[in-house]
Amino acid sequence: MNAKVTIVVPIYNVEQYISKCLTSLINQSFKDIEIMAVDDGSPDNSKGIVKEFAQKDSRVKLIVKKNGGYGSVLSYAVKHIETDYFIVCDPDDWLATDAIEKLYNFAKKNDVDITVGDRYNIYTQSNTKKYISSKPGFIKVKPMKKITDMKEIQYFSFFLVSPHAKLYKTAITREIQFPNKVSYTDFILYLLALAHANSVAYYNEALAYYLIDRSGNTTTDIRPKVLNDYLVGWSSAFNQTIDLSNKDVSVLLYRLYYQLKFIMREYARIIKENKFNNKYLKEIFNDMKSLQKYSKNIKNVRKDTGKAILVMNGMLNKVLYKIVIKEYIKKKQ
C-alpha cells in the first residue's frame, strides 16, 4: 500500500497524551497514511509508547533525533516526507476519525495546495469542548471554494495559524527554513506555505481536537523564553517573506505587523519587572523598524478601521513608533 498522506507528530515529553493521539491516527477511515512520529530527544517514555504502536501497525514510523525544538522537527519533515500531502498533529491533540478522508478527498479533487479546517478546543477541567472556526469574521470567503487569487490566498494568514486540520501539499513547503531550539514555528510553516501556494480552501468543519488547557501547553506558558521564541520565529518568517522578490507579499507583511502586535501583548502578559528596559523590547523596536520600510505596502492592503488605523500609523512612523509601542503595551498590562 502506497501512502497518500503523511501525518507528522512532533514528540517531546508527552507520554501522558501520545497514546490517544496515535489511536486517533491509526483509526482514520482513510487508510493510505504514514504516521511520521518524530521523537525530538524526549527524555520520557514517549518513544517506548510509539514503538508499541509501530509493532502493531507498520504505518507508524518512529524517528528518533537529537533535541532541536519544534522547528527542527518541521525541518526534518518537509525534507523527508514522500507523500504528496501532509498534516501536522501535535501529540497532545487528536483528529476526528474521518479528518484525513475529508481533507484529502477535497484537496485531491480540487487540486488545492492548502486546505484549512476548523477545530474543537478541549477544556479538561470542565470536561467540555467548544467549536472554534479557523476563519476570522472580517475575512469573507465561501467555504469549500478553491481560492486562486494571490491576495485572497494571503489573507488566509489571518486564519488561526496552529496546525490543526490543515492539509498541505508537500511540494510548496520544501524550501521553508525553520530555526532550531524555538517553539511556535507552526506560524512559519503556515505563513510561508501561503506565500508559495497557488490555491487554498476553507473546509468549515471541525476535524481536530485541541487540548488547550493542559499543564505545559504553549498557550499557558509564562516564561520569558516564550518572547524569545516568538521573536526568532517572527524574524525568520519576515526574512523569508521579503526574500520572495518575485511576488507581491503586501498582505503577508500586514499579517506580520499583526503578529508583532500579538508579541507586544504577550510581552505585557509575561514581563513583570523592568518592563521597558530589556532585550525583548529592543527586538520589538528593531522588528517594527524593519516593517516600516514596507509601510506603504501594508497600508494599501489593511482592513483596519478607527483607532486601529491610528495605532498602525503611529507604529509605522519612524519618529513616534517607540512611544506608541510603549503606550500599547501599558494598556495591555
What keyword list fits this structure?
alpha/beta; Spore Coat Polysaccharide Biosynthesis Protein SpsA, Chain A; 42% helix; globular; 2 domains; 17% strand; 9-stranded mixed β-sheet; 333 residues
Describe this entry's structure for a reader.
The chain has 2 domains: 215 residues, Alpha-Beta Complex (Spore Coat Polysaccharide Biosynthesis Protein SpsA, Chain A); 112 residues. The chain is 42% helix and 17% strand. Helix 7 runs antiparallel to helix 8. The chain is globular and about 65 Å long.
Topology summary:
Elements (H helix, E strand, L loop, with lengths): L4 E7 L6 H9 L6 E8 L5 H11 L3 E6 L4 H11 L4 E4 L5 E2 L3 H12 L3 E10 L4 E5 L17 H6 L10 E4 L16 H11 L3 E12 L13 H18 L7 H21 L8 H14 L2 H7 L5 H9 L5 H12 L1
Parallel strand pairs: 1-2, 1-4, 2-3, 6-9
Antiparallel strand pairs: 4-8, 5-9, 6-7, 6-8
Helix pairs in contact: 6-7, 7-8, 7-9, 8-9, 8-10, 8-12
